[in-house]
Amino acid sequence: QVQVVESGGGLVQAGGSLRLSCAASSSEFLTVMGWYRQAPGKQRELVAKITSGGTTNYADSVKGRFTISRDVAENTMDLQMTRLNAEDTAVYYCNADSRWNPTGPGAYWGQGTQVTVSS
User: Which value, to the nearest 10 degrees, does the dihedral of the CA atoms of residues 111, 117, 118, 119 take?
Assistant: First the structure.
């Protein structure tokens, strides 16, 4: 059983910064953790993900602005978001995976946290 909980969303002005955190309680080893987001009327999309070895992958739209980090031993993960713009407004979901070399998101999702960027 894996439970995933996000925190840190909120309202921020364009150009500002926000930090999201995720904590997972798991008896399984989590190979990949990541952040996904879903804006109104759009499909859920990958924002960034990080493996247990520290390899990261970012969506082109957030490269250079967002930084993902992770504490493997503690099963926690952060997303530092800077230079936010209106297009970053979405519900952000933490995702965790226990498969090795997975394709696509893992089976474990948090409840989501709203990020709203005002212009």
Answer: -150
